[in-house]
Design brief:
Distance between the termini: 105 Å
Strand content: under 5%
CATH topology: Lysozyme
Order of helices and strands: HHHHHHHHH
Radius of gyration: 25 Å
Number of strands: 0
Structural class: mainly alpha
Helix content: 55-70%
Length: 213
């Protein structure tokens, strides 16, 4: 009789332990989901993504400043609460950077529109960041500490675009091709690289901005 009672008691304890383990596993799964949802509500999520991409980008530095090809359309941050930058604030940043780096404001605005759709927290699949979609290595080379700060990002992107214009003797098509695909590809191609995304990128900006005669 006592052996039977002990056996039943041991069985109940084992079943209770299994239920406790199951509840704990469910709790941990729910906690992971909660953390993921919390992380997806702001720019911090995108910064974490960029940090994970830095290591992969650093292994492919043969393309000049750009470590990976840029996709045609960056993944925008609207879903994560990032408000597009427009109006007087955008105008002031564009005008200042255009003046500082001897660029036409219309050109700079066209680049911002094409790169990020005016989203200061935009992050591409390749890890390009901010309004003018700076790759991590490019941002560092241009002295950009926080690529999600609109003023820093536009200033750094403008500086790099100015460098590409100087490198290619003022040829805007080549400079834009280098901004999109990297100067290494432009040099090897002897012109705008035969990459559909880059070709469309250059045509799109030149179609929106006509340089003065």
């Amino acid at each position: 009789m006592w052996k039977l009672i002990a056996l039943v008691f041991a069985t109940l304890v084992a079943l209770f332990g299994q239920q406790v383990d199951s509840i704990e596993r469910q709790r941990q799964a729910l906690e992971r989901q909660r953390s993921a949802l919390t992380a997806a509500t702001g720019p911090d999520r995108q910064k974490a993504v960029v940090e994970r991409q830095r290591a992969g980008a650093a292994r492919q530095q043969g393309e000049g400043f750009f470590a990976l090809p840029w996709p045609e359309r960056p993944r925008l941050a609207a879903a994560f609460g990032c408000v597009p930058l427009r109006g007087a604030e955008l105008d002031a940043l564009v005008e200042r950077s255009a003046r500082d780096h001897a660029l036409a404001p219309g050109l700079l605005r066209a680049v911002v529109r094409r790169e990020s759709g005016f989203q200061p927290c935009a992050v591409s699949r390749a890890g390009a960041m901010g309004l003018m979609q700076l790759m991590p290595a490019t941002a560092a080379a241009m002295g950009v500490v926080d690529p999600f700060d609109p003023a820093e990002n536009i200033a750094g992107g403008s500086r790099f675009l100015r460098q590409m214009l100087d490198r290619y003797g003022g040829n805007l098509g080549l400079a834009l091709g280098a901004y999109n695909a990297g100067p290494g590809r432009v040099d090897r191609s002897g012109g705008i690289p035969p990459i559909r995304e880059t070709q469309e990128y250059v045509r799109g900006i030149l179609g929106e901005f006509s340089p003065p005669e």
